[in-house]
Amino acid sequence: MFCASAYLCLFVFSGEVPREPVISKKTGYIYEKSLITKYIKTEGKCPITGVELDVDDLIDVKTQPIVKPKPVPATSIPGLLVSLQNEWDSMMLESFTLKKHLQAVRQELSQTLYQHEAACRVIARLIKERDAAREALANVQAAPVAVPEAEMEVEDKISDEMMAKMEKKAKESFKTRPKRKIPDDLCTPEAMKEWKVVASYTAHKTASPAVKCVAQRAEQPDLVLSGGEDGQVLLYNVAERKVRRNFTGHKKAVNSVVLHPTREVVISGSDDKTVRLWVDQERPTVFRQHSAEVTGVALQPVGEFFCSCGRDGAWCFYDIAAARAVQTVACGLEDATPETIQFHPDGLLLGVGASSGAVQVWDMRSQKVAVTLAEHAGAVRGLAFSENGYYMASGAKDEVVKVWDLRNGSCLQNLAMGSAVNAVCFDYSGTYLCGAGEALKVWSTKTWEETFEHAEAVKGYHAAVFGAKAEYLLAGCGNRAVVKLGL
After folding, report:
1. For the domain bounded by 4-69, which CATH number is listed?
2. Looking at the chain, which terminus has fewer C-beta neighbours within 10 angstroms, N or C?
3. Helix (H, G, I), strand (E, B), or coil: what is residue 319?
């Protein structure tokens, strides 16, 4: 028989002497039967030790029926205070346990939220990559595969057959040039003074807004090719006011573009060190002959070849039909790099403007420098040959446009721009010369007087080209616009 102290053992749940005491075979603790039975059904373990329990593990405790003693704490005020203190301690312990469980739940929730956020980011990236792949797939056109870059070989020199074509073209140009007359309906200086912006388009991206180069085909004046700081090469239809084609692929700024005058050929050079050639809207051939930024591309007058120059200090000669690089020539510039390149209308002279302020004129027959003109005090950014055959213009960061006489290598004129020069161009008749900088300026080659000035572009002008008969002027602006100035 159990002693009276067994009846005074408080049950953990009720805090009272058990009415139907049971004892556990595993733990040895005494419980209230009704309460421990419910607890085992829900938790399956001892509420005190945490040991797994079953109802079969409980043994009824046999006791004599006695009068339930009055609880000691209720007999006096000190006893009541002790009872209240115990209740308070129990409440504090329960509160501490709840806070501990709450902190654990918060940590689990935070971890779950972090995992959810990471999953959302991964999903967003995968969706973006999927959309980019779909767009790239949609832009792929059925066409012969371009020559892989790794298989492109560079020949030792320009072949005799190529040189024969260039010499034939030079002779034809030399014969026809004296017979060429200035058109009667050529724009006059008086009419040019009335020029204003008659058209404008802003198809390039706003993040990198500068339009660094423009080109046009004389027989299709509505088509304008532009290259931008955003890496895009866009063929824009001015009449329809929409982009006809976006020649994609460059990863950095496009510095120079060529639109073939008679064929569906587009050439571009970029800061991503590549030259891209598009023929008949096929996939481009990518040339990586340069080891630094490509600063210029120029079409050879025969129409079958072109050249490029880069900040690696070299210029390269290419065959369009074969889609291959033919020859790479080091410019031999000390502490300087080529910044622009242009062919003479006859095609046997090649001009290269350098960051040192020098202009090299190369003889294509020997691939050697015929003359070096070094009078600029800043990097030469623009270079142009006149169709009269003996004038060459160069524009530099020293804010001067110089006009050279190729017959004796002398400087004929120093034309003040008032800002760094980004580009220069002659009209087809050789009557007008334009310089592009913070403003556009046009001079008459007869009197060398300024006939036109326009300075409305917010960020200046990076490129310019005359239209047929000097009826208008196209300019690439620093605010992503290509503007047409005329009447």
Report:
1. 3.30.40.10
2. N
3. strand
Q: Report the candidate in 407, 419, 357, 364 with the shortest Cα–Cα distance to residue 383.
A: 357
Q: What is the DSSP letter of 276?
A: E
Please name which of 346, 352, 284, 291 lies closest in space to residue 320, comparing C-alpha atoms: 284
Query: What are 451's two structure tokens?
Result: 């006939």
User: What are the residues facing 272 on neighbouring strands?
Assistant: none
Task: Say if pTM beats, i.e. exceeds, 0.85.
Answer: no
> Partners of 136 in the beta sheet?
none
d(C-alpha 195, C-alpha 181), whole Å: 24
In the three-class reduction of DSSP (H, G, I as helix; E, B as strand; rest coil), residue 465 is classed as strand
Residue whose entry in the numeric block shows the structure tokens 């005359």? 466
Using DSSP's 3-state secondary structure scheme, residue 230 falls into coil
In CATH terms, the superfamily for domain 155-486 is YVTN repeat-like/Quinoprotein amine dehydrogenase (2.130.10.10)
Name the maximum alpha-carbon separation found in the chain.
141
Among candidates 32, 62, 61, 68, which has minimal Cα distance to 47? 32
DSSP 69: P
CA distance 487 to 484: 10
pLDDT per position in the chain (487 positions), as tens?
344 333 334 444 555 667 788 998 888 888 888 888 888 888 888 888 888 888 888 888 887 665 555 555 556 787 788 788 888 878 887 887 888 889 989 999 998 998 998 999 999 989 988 888 887 776 654 343 444 443 344 456 889 999 999 999 999 988 888 888 888 899 999 999 999 998 888 878 777 778 999 999 888 888 899 999 989 999 988 878 888 888 988 999 999 999 999 999 999 999 999 999 998 767 889 999 999 999 999 999 999 999 999 999 999 999 999 999 999 999 998 889 999 999 999 999 999 999 999 999 999 999 999 999 988 999 999 999 999 888 999 999 999 999 999 999 999 999 999 999 999 999 999 999 999 999 999 999 999 999 999 887 668 899 999 998 999 999 999 888 888 999 8
Sequence spans of domains, the chain: 4-69, 75-139, 155-486
8-state DSSP, 52: B
Which residue in this structure is represented by tokens 């020029």? 195
Cβ neighbourhood burial of 274 (10 Å; 0-12, 13-18, 19+): buried
Residue with tokens 């039967």: 33
Does residue 266 sit in helix, strand or coil?
strand
DSSP-derived pairing of the beta strands 482-486 and 196-201: antiparallel
